[in-house]
Amino acid sequence: MAPIPTPSAEPHDSPDAYVGLAADRAEHLARERGWSTVRALPPGAVITMEYRTGRLNFEVRDGLVARAWKG
């Protein structure tokens, strides 16, 4: 039986630091800081609620990050 993979640690970074930034700048900065997955979502997007270590989500309105959260 294959071993269960150990997820990598998340960056020590606050999602709140991205609010107000331009979406493309926020994504670049998040990847630079070590987030393995970054996704930009429109307001009200229907998404699954599973938590994924290393993923940072952005809600983008008018090209700016309005909200950011882990998972």
Can you tag this structure with a few keywords?
alpha+beta, 3 strands, three-stranded mixed sheet, 71 residues, 27% strand
Briefly say what this structure is.
It holds the Pfam family Inhibitor_I78. Helix content is 14%, strand content 27%.
- List low-confidence stretches: none
Class derived from helix and strand content: alpha+beta
How many DSSP E strands?
3
Largest sheet: 3 strands, mixed
Rg on CA atoms, Å: 13 Å
Strands of the widest sheet, in order across it, are 1-2-3
What does the average pLDDT come to? 92
Helix and strand string, N-terminal first?
A: HEEE
Number of helices: 1
| Helix percentage range | 10-25%
The shape is globular
Strand content: 25-35%
- Alpha-carbon distance between the two ends: 28 Å
What does this protein structure show overall?
The chain is an alpha+beta fold and 71 residues long. It has one helix and three strands. The chain has one helix spanning 23-32; strands at 37-41, 55-61, 64-70. A three-stranded mixed β-sheet has the order 1-2-3, with helices on one face. A hairpin with a 2-residue loop joins strand 2 and strand 3 (64-70). 17% of the residues are buried.
